[in-house]
Amino acid sequence: MTNFVVKTLANAAALAVAIWLVSGITLDDGSPLGRRTLTLVLVALVFGLVNLIVKPVVKLFSLPLFVLTLGLFTLVVNALMLLLTSWLAQLFNLSFHVDNFWSALLGGVIISIVSWAVNLALPEKN
């Protein structure tokens, strides 16, 4: 359970950095800071579920593209997962939005780097 909470908070931190750095990714409905923080955590949960359920299926079906591009297709898959998260967030009335594919691509790269750094900084669970 602790691992799930830590991964969700790491996703939330990574999403916050992407929102801060990429103009095409927004999380703002004019609400107070506490509400935005809750929305960010909920979006991180949706993002985590998308990466847990959908991403492995997409990676399996696009395996030839991974091999052909020497793994660079991962960037495209990450962007698509971020776009799917944006679409699902709209369905759940969360104020998270990704404008276009290029914003999602840059956001996916930022989220990957920040998530890697946060997980590297956290102590390993034995």
Summarize the structure.
The protein is mainly alpha-helical and 126 residues long.
- How many strand segments? 2
Distance between the termini: 14 Å
Order of helices and strands: HEHHHEH
The helix tally amounts to 5
Low-confidence stretches: none
* Mean pLDDT reading: 90
The SS-based structural class is mainly alpha
Portion of residues in beta strands equals: under 5%
Overall radius of gyration: 15 Å
Write down the overall geometry: globular
Helix-residue proportion: over 70%
Q: Main β-sheet: number of strands, strand sense, barrel status? A: 2 strands, antiparallel
> Taking strands numbered 1, 2, ... along the chain, how are they ordered across the largest sheet?
1-2
Give your account of this protein's structure.
The protein is mainly alpha-helical and 126 residues long. The chain is built from 5 helices and 2 strands; from the N terminus they run αβαααβα. A two-stranded antiparallel ribbon has the order 1-2. Helix 2 (33-61) crosses helix 4 (73-91) and helix 4 (73-91) crosses helix 5 (101-121). The longest helix is centred in the middle third of the chain and has 29 residues, at 33-61. The protein is globular, with a radius of gyration of 15 Å. The protein starts with a helix and ends in a 5-residue tail after the last helix. The model has no long low-confidence stretch (mean pLDDT 90).
